[in-house]
Amino acid sequence: MIAMKVHHLYSGGKDSSLAAWILSQLGYEVELVTVTFGLLDNWRYARETAERLGFPHRVLELPREILEKAGEIAISDGHPNNAIQFIHERALEALASLPEVERVSDGTRRDDRVPLLDLPKARSLEDRFGVAYIRPLLGLGYKTIRELTGRLFVVEIRESEELQKADYEVELRHLLRERGIDPLEIFPKSHYQSRVLGWREDVDRP
Amino acid sequence: MIAMKVHHLYSGGKDSSLAAWILSQLGYEVELVTVTFGLLDNWRYARETAERLGFPHRVLELPREILEKAGEIAISDGHPNNAIQFIHERALEALASLPEVERVSDGTRRDDRVPLLDLPKARSLEDRFGVAYIRPLLGLGYKTIRELTGRLFVVEIRESEELQKADYEVELRHLLRERGIDPLEIFPKSHYQSRVLGWREDVDRP
């Protein structure tokens, strides 16, 4: 059979790691892709997790203007949701526009509010770039995600401000600080994030 | 590890068969469940396909009043969408209410209009019955479903009126005929349905 390659947006967290595993279980050849704006090198945490999980990994640098625009949105709104949504849509578009990319995927879940493409936006992404857009977690609730990640991964959970990972929001928080704004005025005070450290020992690895 | 059992609504078509395969790839122990109202024995087509695919199968008989109510809805609306949606919700509830059932699933897809539970209805099903509701195809578009089913299954595609399968609509059409109504006045004229005949020879079977 011809290999089916998918380019999967990846932060190193448990959702995007679970989605990557599901894609591999479905027979896809998975390449993980972490976005950066070049402000920080926090993409290295995603790379480290990708290596521990055994998936190939690349870094996709997006124009810094996108992060700056996201910063303006977050400051204007007083909360980060639309800014995170904006970055995610631009990241999917940048990935889908690469000539070798036929399938793009991410770890967005049924119960997520942001980032999440509604049905018209999902179809528009596919139509504009001629790709398939795959969201392995979209039909899964929190119970199912918890039981699968619990079986698969060793996970570290910490406050967002303390956790070293490769989410968009790390560079967004950094940009806000550079502009003299305390991220805690915009992001929720208590916001736990996860980072996958590796496979559990008894997992059949892809 | 403890077995994770899921009860999966199953018609023998390619969507519900693909969803069953995905669940098995995720480590679930899958039992297929086909609904009947006792008018016809078209559930036998689903059982035959379930046996060819190697999954255990059960038949769940729903009260005939549900089909009669669906018939009234279809006649009143002049199209079958709300009737099919009504049956599907009652089928999920009946399955979720069985004491041994912890996880229910179905083959509904991102691009389906009916049957499809919106997010509040999906969460309500989970909360009312204390189950997890899993939709393996919800994050997949038609391209992805086509490439996966093409790899996995030998599929027969025919006009709905000709195809022998175990969809809700077969008994709904029958009920309408019993009441002197031509189903073609209510269902779309040209409506192709699929039925899975078996695995492709080169598939790693679950």
Automatic annotation (TrEMBL), chains A, B:
InterPro entries: DUF7411, Rossmann-like_a/b/a_fold
Lineage: Archaea, Methanobacteriati, Methanobacteriota, Thermococci, Thermococcales
Name of the protein described by the UniProt record: ATPase, putative, PP-loop superfamily
Annotated source species: Thermococcus gammatolerans (strain DSM 15229 / JCM 11827 / EJ3)
